[in-house]
Write a structure and sequence with these properties.
Layout (H helix, E strand, L loop, with lengths): L1 H26 L6 E4 L2 E2 L7 E3 L2 E5 H7 L3 E5 L4 E6 L2 E6 L4 E4 L2 E4 L5 E3 L2 E5 H7 L3 E5 L4 E5 L7 H4 L19
Parallel strand pairs: 1-13
Antiparallel strand pairs: 1-2, 3-4, 4-11, 5-6, 6-7, 7-8, 8-9, 10-11, 12-13
Length: 174
């Protein structure tokens, strides 16, 4: 009788731990977040992810929807995007980025999640000249690419110009 109760209790605890793990794992994905670019809800092959309060989206999905050319080098984990006269360069896991050749420090770097590269939506959108608005009541991010944004939203986190030609990225301080 006692053995049956212990086994029953251990099954219940195991089930509860499994549910807790599933809940915590799914919390990393911002499944309820909708992304609109120029008024159109976009469908992404990977759900937006929420990390440290920031929305991350698959790099190719957002860049191409915004009309940018994007190149990802898996060997170096570097991303390059160009739209019109703007360029964005960043490396997965590193907080440094370049916009039109000027160095900036991102609040959160691009990440890899389940084998996919995700980029911080606000940073890359504003870097390419778009405006970004968040509607918390509908959990929707609105990206508007029709105007030209002068990068003011991220200027406050600008760092001193880093001379990328003089040293390898690994030799520079973060």
């Amino acid at each position: 009788m006692l053995l049956a109760r212990v086994l029953d209790l251990s099954r219940k605890v195991g089930f509860m731990l499994l549910l807790l793990f599933a809940f915590v794992s799914s919390a990393a994905f911002a499944r309820g977040v909708t992304v609109c670019v120029d008024g159109e809800v976009i469908s992404l092959d990977v759900a937006p992810a929420m990390r440290h309060g920031w929305i991350f989206v698959p790099l190719r999905g957002i860049f191409e929807k915004m009309g940018a050319l994007v190149v990802f080098n898996p060997a170096t984990r570097k991303v390059f995007a160009r739209k019109g006269g703007r360029t964005v360069e960043l490396k997965v896991g590193e907080p440094k980025a370049k916009i039109n050749g000027r160095a900036y420090l991102m609040i959160v770097p691009a990440i890899e999640l389940s084998g996919r590269t995700l980029v911080p939506l606000r940073f890359v959108s504003e870097a390419l000249g778009a405006s970004v608005n968040w509607n918390s009541s509908s959990a929707t991010v609105f990206v508007n690419t029709t105007g030209t944004q002068a990068i003011p939203e991220i200027k406050e986190i600008e760092v001193e110009n880093l001379d990328s030609d003089s040293k390898d990225d690994s030799e520079k301080s973060p």
